Amino acid sequence: MTTLIVLAKECLPGRVKTRLHPPFSLEEAARLAAASLDDTLAIAQAVRCDRRLLWFDGRPPAAAGFEPRPQPAGGLDERIAAAFDACRGRTVLIGMDTPQADPAVLQAVLDDDSGAQAWFGPATDGGFWALGLDRPDGALVRGVPMSTAQTGAAQRARLVEAGLSVRDLPPLTDVDTVESAREVAAAAPGSAFASALAAVRDGAVA
């Protein structure tokens, strides 16, 4: 059994990508978040797996091939932990903020026969963009401080301390600031996110 989880939330103005405001309006920031989510879902749809889980905060979008499940209450660590606890077999979780992610990298994790037990995708801001567990267990995430510059290091250390063999994935940049948005768009020029960013910058999106 293999599972790919997309951790996401409803793209409402004022609830997503607020660090893009200013210079963008809250409505524009929400449009950029929605484009990033669209790209992420397309990436996940390109990966072969037994189950795709959309672990969602809010009203989930229609997404072919995904099982939508509501996120529980609690901090981010609790919500990620609950997602892993809802799965069995090799499971990979990604967020909605890296529309430049390569489906081949995720496929390689799901197909990995090297004996690795965990896969860690660091983010350049100190967090992580992907986390894979051969035997999903929320206890490996629960209690890790989230949304800090040390989150990734703390999460990877948790895996090592549990005695797991960890393989590192290529680092990626999350969309958080205008500068990171430009970097991500340049890395994925054909993405919906890149098109949305160009539209906003050109004033085509009100």
Automatic annotation (TrEMBL):
Residue runs in coiled coils: none
Classification via Pfam families: DUF2064
InterPro entries for this protein: Nucleotide-diphossugar_trans (IPR029044), Trfase_1_rSAM/seldom-assoc (IPR018641)
Protein name: DUF2064 domain-containing protein
Organism of this sequence: Amnibacterium endophyticum
